[in-house]
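INPUT
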Amino acid sequence: MRNLTQDTITQAVLGRLAQTPDPRLKEIMTSLVQHLHAFAREVRLTEDEWFKGIEFLTACGHKTDDKRQEFILLSDTLGLSMLTVAMNNDKPQGCTEATVFGPFHVENAPHYEHGEDVANGAPGEPCIVRGSVRGLEGEAVPGATIEVWQADADGNYDVQYEGQGEHRARGVLHAGPDGRFHFRTIRAEAYPIPHDGPVGDLLRATKRHPWRPAHLHFMITAPGYERLVTHVFRDGDPYLDSDAVFGVRQSLVADWKQQADGSYLLEFDFVLAPERPAGRRQGAAAAKAAA
Amino acid sequence: MRNLTQDTITQAVLGRLAQTPDPRLKEIMTSLVQHLHAFAREVRLTEDEWFKGIEFLTACGHKTDDKRQEFILLSDTLGLSMLTVAMNNDKPQGCTEATVFGPFHVENAPHYEHGEDVANGAPGEPCIVRGSVRGLEGEAVPGATIEVWQADADGNYDVQYEGQGEHRARGVLHAGPDGRFHFRTIRAEAYPIPHDGPVGDLLRATKRHPWRPAHLHFMITAPGYERLVTHVFRDGDPYLDSDAVFGVRQSLVADWKQQADGSYLLEFDFVLAPERPAGRRQGAAAAKAAA
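OUTPUT
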């Protein structure tokens, strides 16, 4: 295997993957190498451009730590995250739609009881959130684990504050016996994704804005049901049609109603998909793609 | 732009790139997004696999510092580096072929005079290297800058030694008035690319060995000529046909002859391509691809 040319190298690399024991890894690497090489050939990538790519990935890696995930931001802004979500969440009709996970979830958020304030001091307009978790047949899902997280009035998640060790505007609750829940928080506001790193540089170079419409993140899990990762968006937000990460679904846009006392009320009912055997989640999508 | 599906999201992302002022950046990003999405669709990437990819890139970034370049290792082992070199170095017949740059070049290597020992204490079999730098018409290229770097007898470059601040087995020389040069060093040995990081994990998972055949790196520059980045390989090396980074070219394999005193002698003559206007370097290759 000497003297490989631009016409023969792809097959040579694929040949080197032939002994991969895990068939799925082999499938993924084979496709990845083919598309990576096809990209380089299509644009006739120069050596300087190749090196800029190396430097860009390096900068993303160095920007990433336990509070900042530049590669997720990159995936989000290139639409790869939403594409992956769309392929893997072709849920039955009537279920709440999924959207991107984002880079701001943290493990071990504090637990709250119904009615408590998850804001925990985060600045913002007071807001009450209430709703229910049900299955496709309308059945309540008692005890469902509901994790919420959001940006504050300044457009920041708690993890974006330097030296701020406390969990704010995030928490974990459990649905009651009737599948219902309620908690206090602050009104979510639109915010720019972190753009002081290489992904921000890329957005500027492509004349894209970094804004996401206001939203409250939910991750809901319960035995017998598929995990739901989604947001509820705020109706009227100017960025609903140009979300920097392509995550808006009309069914997730809700009216956050201002009350007589000036506070806000968000009501939203979630419908979980029944758990399906592995591989089934993509079934309907794959069938459509083949059609 | 709401409710994007796996069938509509790619066009939506491309639309978001429409205002990119730099046409080349727009071309590259457009192609990149299309191939990235095509890859995800082709393998029907799951959310867990997507997250493993994020973790893999993060680990590559965290492994990379001023002495270790995991993204170059990744590009090298996926054949992207050699593909890029091949596309950009379609030199006229008779010129010395190029190969991969690799991750071990450092700026500001020490200067040496002819006959001096660039090894500077690096362990290995003594070796004399001599040769010439010429142009396509056979003309000497006096004063050409010749940068060399290599691994030692233990298969390590100087930068791979923890806390070893000295430059060893690397240096910069200049061709004499007749285009000739000679210096002392150590015999290059085969070595495994650094495989204690995520790229090493990937090689193991795909049952690939990390070895590169023994080689001495050269980067040669001179006004009026194209920069040449190449290696000279050692004939008889067992890894010449399975170089982990796909870089071997038969024209770069030389006999490193053992002398009566036990030391080695490598003789190699380099032929530089004349400088061509920007865009011309890929000309011949592009014409072939179109044919």
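end of record. Residues 9-45 of chain A form one domain.
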